[in-house]
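queue> holo job accepted (nicotinamide-adenine-dinucleotide)
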Amino acid sequence: MKILITGGAGFVGTNMVVALHKEGFDLVAIDSLSRHGTEKNLDYLKAQVPNLDFRRSEIEDIPSIIYRERPALVYHFAAQVAVTSSLASPLRDFKINAEASFHIARAAADVGAEIIYTSTNKVFGDNVNKFPIEEFETRYDFGGDRNQRGVDEGVSIDANHHTPYGVSKLVGELYVREFGGIANRCSCMYGPNQFGIVDQGWLSHIAFNKHMGRPTVIYGNGKQVRDILHVNDVTNLFIRQAKTLLGKSKDIRGEVYNVGGGFENTISLLELCKMWGVEPTFEGWRPADQKVFYCDISKAKEVFGWEPRVDMQDGINELFEWTRSSVNGSPKVLKANNELEVRNLIDPSLESNFQAVYEKLSRQANRKSPRLVTTAGTHFEASAETAQDGRSFIQLPHSNRIYEGDWGYQTNSMGEGGQRIGQYSKALDEWATHTTKS
Ligand SMILES: NC(=O)c1ccc[n+]([C@@H]2O[C@H](COP(=O)([O-])OP(=O)(O)OC[C@H]3O[C@@H](n4cnc5c(N)ncnc54)[C@H](O)[C@@H]3O)[C@@H](O)[C@H]2O)c1
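queue> job finished
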């Protein structure tokens, strides 16, 4: 079954392409590659989904691709995503988010495709600031009956101040729903493959600042609160939605869902900075900034049997480490135990070798193979060492120590070239043997 993804090399799009590929869907991903970081995401996608049908295309050309490809479902993620850019260039923002979304939604309807759209909490505009708000040392919170419940889909979208981005996304949302699609009003999504900028993707932006030694500026007092949702929880929900639409198990066409981490996954700017040891400077408030936003996600929970599962602290740590590896260009083991995840490696051509050797060694060691995720190959010049306390370390090139736990993984800085797979086999062999014993 064919699924078409617009914005397929963006943050959400990249994670969705990989998740949908694992589900066995036939995919067409489209992106103009205008967003910083999309080239890297595309490299990652090529490694993860080797036969991906990727088209570099502007949003205006997407309807004609929909008419040609006739997918069963369209995920429409491509957008002008920054409030600040919408204020500077409202017409451009309108053309990408409103006008193009109209054409995409109509094309999807014409070919009988379902469509799922990512709208935004900004459609509620400054209405959110009219709720009673309480101020605490490090954060604001909703008072009254919104406290811990947040903003549901019934809150008025008729606000005095939306920002042009809020308007254009709302127009896109309304057309998608009008033509039979569904819309998700997303608050902050975060996770790997996110290249945040000052205008959008604030957790990721602050992580990049930290790892690149750049200052962080907070607009306002930093007590602004958002609910955050890890991208794995996003992909999980969006795939459930696709299956519901395609399976026609419930009539959800035209519906809208608030999508975020909910009250349990809220954090303020100040709290995040403290967690990461960032000392920000402060400037004036941005127009129409929401002091508090968190969603009431009970509708999505009820309809799709879904709820956020990624622990917020784990997710934040993962983003921090992923960003570090992205900045350093170094290999990164994110998880160990039964899930070895190696990201951001150096030579993509070696990835299949790594996979093959790894699986062979796992079989030899007569153990269930841990899931291995690589984004690209590496030079594989590495050695296994056993520390005095009996733990093993694998050393990979071009990085500092990258994992510590039951199993430690270290990297060194051996530079380019040198030995390749043979040496790495030895390291993996020792590692697999040791793992079997434990
Ligand atoms: N990330 C969030 O926290 C968040 C919150 C609310 C809503 N959203 C919405 O979710 C969607 C995905 O967001 P994201 O974080 O992945 O953003 P992103 O910027 O990473 O992805 C959007 C992609 O669209 C592409 N694109 C932009 N303009 C285009 C054009 N004219 N033609 C073709 N492609 C174009 C970009 O290159 C980019 O890869 C967007 O619609 C955004 O408005 C995101």
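queue> Residues 270 and 298 are 28 Å apart (CA to CA).
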